[in-house]
Specification:
Structural class: alpha+beta
Strand order of the largest sheet: 8-9-7-10-12-11
Shape: globular
Number of strands: 12
Order of helices and strands: HEEHEEHHEEEHEEHEHEEHH
Distance between the termini: 77 Å
Largest sheet: 6 strands, antiparallel
Radius of gyration: 23 Å
């Protein structure tokens, strides 16, 4: 329908200006599309018309390696896959809403993120991943602050049937959405972001304590690396050496099913230090781990 409208009603010799973020509901009433609605309008039209490229104009030079408000030396990433962009958006990067990615992903139309204040910048291209392309060890670092960490341990015997199903049934009942999850047969750790109401969290905990031991830790953050998970050993070796040297405690870790992210749960007050030091290592070639390793080698030579 969109493609037909453009083909039959719009002169191909003019530039069509289309209002974003406005649509209609199932009853035909005019409404807005919500956050990211303008981007969704652009990607829906571009994908329907099978354009060569969709451009969305923001106030940054594309998708950056980290939040420039925290990391002064954050740099634009030339290209990312649809999956990487979706994970970045979900775990804190505000450049493009995950829903806006779906039409372009479905039809394989590249999306370029450009800077309206710096039009000459190349920006970042979001596109389908091509097998065999060079993979970066880490593409970007993002985060979610002020989340809650919930640890749930079954009170029943090992191998209790239906424990996880019961846990997630309670979360569904109270309409609570989980960000990050790590589980075993009789225990589960998960995070809830600050959008979840305190009343709903209290309600689900009252249900959980009838069959499990429950502990709640507040003022936590999710630090997410968008990375080549096939080389996760190399990534984690650097991450944990940095964390060890900086005294940063990981309270939970999870590798996403998308195979492009690794997430760590930290205290809020350790997050900025963790991001800056990981950025030094993965993007700035001034890693404290490498410096200390070189120093150790020099000291060994003098022994």
């Amino acid at each position: 329908a969109i493609a037909n409208a453009f083909e039959n009603r719009i002169d191909p010799n003019v530039v069509a200006v289309v209002t974003g973020f406005i649509g209609h509901d199932p009853n035909g009433r005019i409404t807005t599309l919500g956050r990211g609605g303008s981007d969704l309008t652009a990607t829906a039209i571009g994908a329907a018309c099978r354009l060569d490229e969709i451009q969305v104009w923001k106030d940054v030079d594309g998708i950056l390696t980290a939040d420039p408000r925290l990391v002064a030396n954050a740099i634009p990433v030339p290209d990312v896959s649809y999956e990487e962009a979706s994970e970045l958006a979900y775990f804190g990067a505000k450049v493009l809403h995950p829903i806006a990615m779906q039409p372009a992903m479905k039809y394989g139309v590249p999306v370029r993120v450009k800077n309206s204040y710096n039009p000459s910048a190349e920006g970042t291209v979001i596109k389908k991943k091509v097998k065999g392309e060079d993979q970066r060890l880490v593409t970007a670092i993002t985060c979610k602050r002020d989340i809650k960490l919930l640890d749930i341990q079954s009170n029943a015997m090992l191998g209790s049937y239906g424990f996880l199903a019961t846990v997630f049934g309670d979360f569904e009942k109270h309409r609570l959405s989980v960000d990050v999850l790590a589980s075993s047969e009789v225990s589960v750790s998960l995070t809830l972001d600050k959008k979840q109401s305190a009343a709903d969290v209290d309600a689900v905990m009252k249900d959980l304590v009838t069959y499990a031991s429950v502990s709640l830790a507040e003022h936590r953050s999710i630090l997410t690396l968008i990375a080549d998970v096939e080389r996760s050993s190399d990534v984690l070796a650097t991450v944990f050496r940095v964390f060890s040297q900086q005294g940063i405690q990981v309270e939970m870790m999870s590798q996403g099913a998308s195979k492009v992210n690794i997430s760590f749960i930290l205290r809020d007050d350790q997050l900025d230090d963790a991001i800056m030091n990981l950025h030094y290592c993965f993007f700035e070639d001034r890693c404290i781990v490498n410096q200390d390793t070189d120093k150790e080698k020099e000291e060994a030579l003098y022994l």
